[in-house]
Amino acid sequence: MSKITKIETVNQLENPKAKLKVAAYCRVSTASDAQLESLETQKEHYENYISKRAEWEYAGLYFDEGISGTKAEIRPQLLQLIADCKAKKVDFIITKSISRFSRNTTDCLELVRTLLDINVPVYFEKENINTGSMESELFLSILSSMAEDESASIAANISWGIKTRFKAGTFKLTSPPYGYRWDGKALVVEPKEALVVKRIFTELLAGKGAYTIAKNLNAERIPTFRKVKWHSGTILGIATNEKYVGDVLLQKTYTDSQFNKHKNTGQRDQYLVKDDHEAIISRSTFEAVTKIIRQHALEKNISQSAKKYTNRYTLSGKLICGQCGATLKRRIHTAGNYKYVAWCCSTHLANKEKCSLLYLEDAAIKGAFTTLINKLIFAHAVILKPLLITLKATSKDAALLKIKELQTELLRNTEQRETLSTLMAQGYIDKIIYTGQANELLRQADNAKNEITALGSSLTGDNCKITELTKLLRYTEKASMLMQFDDAVFTDFVEKIIIKNRQKVTFVLKCGLSLTERM
Fold first, then answer.
1. Taking each helix axis from N to C terminus, what angle separates 210-219 and 232-239, rounded to the nearest 10 degrees?
2. What are 33's strand-pairing partners?
3. Where are the beta strands (DSSP E) in 126-206?
4. Percent of the chain residues past pLDDT 90, beyond the cut
5. For residues 517 and 505, is the Cβ–Cβ distance under 8 A?
6. Per-residue pLDDT tens for 396-436?
7. Residue 166 has pLDDT above 80, yes or no
8. Other CB atoms within 10 A of residue 104 CB
9. What are the chain's domains?
């Protein structure tokens, strides 16, 4: 009889499965004590929640304090978390809710897509959504829209409350300017800083410029409010701030529906509260300095707008250093009894080791432009006309045809989605099949829309170039040779000038041409 021997199974040790590196993100909207206490509670909750799971490895907790949730780019810890995900330090993210993660639909979806592209899902506790197992972004889009509406509603209520306090004169200013501190009830003078403020006004009255005053304060190591360097803009900001005479102008800025802050130049009502707190500067001194600043602005043709330097001189804002990318500043140079205008790289002025570009004479740059225009006037028939014909022939046809095809495809896509919805409603297909097919159709529709937008932008850019090139061609066809630099011609046709070196500059024209000229 055969002998049968039983062979026992040997359990092979399997390679232990790598643990999932899980991190949490939390945020509080303000930096108040109550909110920070809530933050501590969230920290403790997530640390315990993650550590208790054997298959998870605690990868840290990321949190932002006192920062609004409406924009991702102003939350440093969220950006750091995304960077760590890309570096494979985090595999999975847990957060309390969509509203804590982001209150802007576009921003929220963009963040989720960015993370899914690197295989990092997000779990929203409140909504019980795991983006790694979702069939589509539709549900998330709806919920984040609700969060955005909630944010807008809260913002509207806050704005209404602030405006009401503005009108009643009961708004409390808690962000003190240099020279003041907030004691919990009102602005109070900070003696040491107040002396610096008085010095600034005195020196402005004596004729010193803002740049010189800032330079002297930096040399004496006098700190600013935020311990950074003094700049001419800082000096002018102090010189034009009504708070130094004891007044408060309310609603100098406002926030739009997209949560972007703007300077209030008449878009919203403003309210002036006189004698709100102790003054550092007398009204007569403040008014005298204001007159000096306005007079200097008139003399130098400085507009008080956001683009205040653009039209100061013809070349202002147009000259770009080809070595470091900085703009060039206008200076008056002296050689014996001879004075002339020169343009210097702002980086070189601050630190010669960071940029070696030396100054260029204003007359040399203008002379190079005059030569360039004269060349175009002479050779417009062989340079500009053929270019315009080619641009017109190649820019539109293919793009317009493709846009038409995509629009037809979108129409067909919409019909397919409507049919799909009808079939599910009548019970011919189940929800799983519907979800899969609907998601695919939505993805195709998004791709088509994005492509149409890109083609439209391309057409718009080409149309602008055609318009500008036509304008330049018409000018060069009729114009006589320039005998000297013409401000109007320069402004009409030049977008910017790249300074390669002291012998060579490139004029970037509005029509898209980049032409290099020697000086």
1. 110
2. none
3. 129-130, 180-182, 187-189
4. 14
5. yes
6. 556 667 777 887 888 888 888 888 888 788 777 777 888 88
7. no
8. 21
9. 20-147 (3.40.50.1390), 180-299 (3.90.1750.20), 325-361 (no CATH), 365-518 (no CATH)
